[in-house]
Design a protein that fits this description.
This is DUF6285 domain-containing protein. InterPro entries: DUF6285. By secondary structure, the chain is mainly alpha-helical. The chain has two domains: 42 residues; 56 residues, no CATH class. 60% of the residues lie in helices and 6% in strands. A hairpin with a 2-residue loop joins β1 and β2. α1 packs antiparallel against α2 and α3 packs antiparallel against α5.
Length: 126
């Protein structure tokens, strides 16, 4: 598994040595699978809601497995922020008006990163 406190990739899963199996991502995938098959088979409104819930869980699963946020964090840090909330406040307050190109590049990176979870493959065409 790796040294104490490490995180390693096992197949499609990121596994922490602090965590036992099943991981949170594996549990979410199992529930999403149940909703996609057993509950969705009921049909009608319940089936529709099961499909929506399964899609939400798959987004959460992708976020839990994410190890691609280093460029996003670096872009935010380059502007002097730790997270998107701080960036949004600075934009709203006009503190970044003189850094439009840098802000736009950061925002484009943030949007592409978010789309990679919400709509995988969609950002490839942008």
């Amino acid at each position: 598994m790796g040294s104490a406190g490490s995180v390693v990739r096992e197949g499609a899963w990121l596994v922490s040595s602090y965590t036992t199996r099943p991981t949170a991502a594996e549990l979410i995938a199992a529930v999403a699978g149940f909703l996609d098959t057993d509950v969705r088979a009921v049909g009608g409104q319940t089936g529709f809601h099961a499909r929506v819930a399964a899609n939400v869980l798959r987004i959460v699963e992708r976020e839990l497995l994410d190890d691609t946020d280093k460029p996003v964090r670096a872009s935010l840090a380059g502007l002097g922020f730790d997270d998107e909330t701080e960036l949004a406040e600075a934009i709203r307050d006009g503190r970044l008006d003189e850094r439009g190109d840098e802000v736009m590049a950061c925002l484009q990176l943030l949007v592409r990163h978010r789309l990679s979870f919400d709509h995988p493959g969609y950002a490839d065409g942008l």
